[in-house]
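Weekly modeling sync, notes
Attendees: S.R. (lead), two postdocs, one rotation student

Agenda item 3: backlog of single-chain predictions. S.R. asked that every request posted to the team notebook include the full sequence so nobody has to chase files. The rotation student volunteered to paste the first one in as an example of the format we agreed on. Action items at the bottom.

Example entry:
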Amino acid sequence: MSNSKLAQVPSNALIPERDLDKTPVLETHHLGINFGGLKAVDDFNLTVGRTEIAGLIGPNGAGKTTIFNLLTKVYQPTTGTILLDGKDTAGMSTVQVNKAGIARTFQNIRLFSALSVEDNVKIGLHNEIHCGMWSDIFRLPRHWRSEKIAHERALELLSIFHMEDMANAQAGSLPYGAQRRLEIVRALATNPSILLLDEPAAGMNPSETSELMDNIRKIRDTFQIAVLLIEHDMNLVMGICEGICVVNFGRIIAKGDPDEIKNNPDVIEAYLGKKGAK
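Predicted structure, as returned to the notebook:
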């Protein structure tokens, strides 16, 4: 699936043309949060199409991770609405919003380092595979069936990144890039409709970053889900994102496709200062 042109929906937001006949997977309306009187995020409006790869960029301290924390209910918003698959997530907890379809990775890798690669993925499968406490305690047939399904599903997900051979390795022993990939696989295991990636290319060399770009496209095409990423690597952002939203000091300063963003004077100024805008 190649990138498609952005088109307007009734709310005036822009999403890929191919997603126009479907409810946007994510919408925020006037989203904001205050910390002790300071507006960390203010009037944030975003729409992400059902199979869109979208980017959220901005200088350090612009509020990007805070926005991810609002979307995943690490923080409850002070103002505004978040719609996931058209449903209001007001009052939902982090666990509930994950079950409803949002999965994420973090700037700092958060794996269960002492567990195996496969067990890390199985932890993510809790939304898909249910067994029941008594089946687990007494090792009933249902327990073994669930175990078999979880094992097969974990290997299938690991195979996306050609990591099935690492299934028995200790997660903490993997090289950095492989740990990043494992965190993405674990997030996918929760069966999301949108995957939030917080600086997925951090610490990667150019060839790993190039491979990551291919893998993000592969994830979107294989699972038919949306991806929203925070990233400082502009080559990655401009190379795979269809819609890009730029924030500075907690407010949106620009939205558009990569060409529009690249040439937007407000964006150039936010990143380079006034001299860079000349």
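Discussion: group reviewed the output briefly. Residues 178 and 267 are 33 Å apart (CA to CA).
Action items: rotation student to repeat for the remaining queue; S.R. to check formatting next week.
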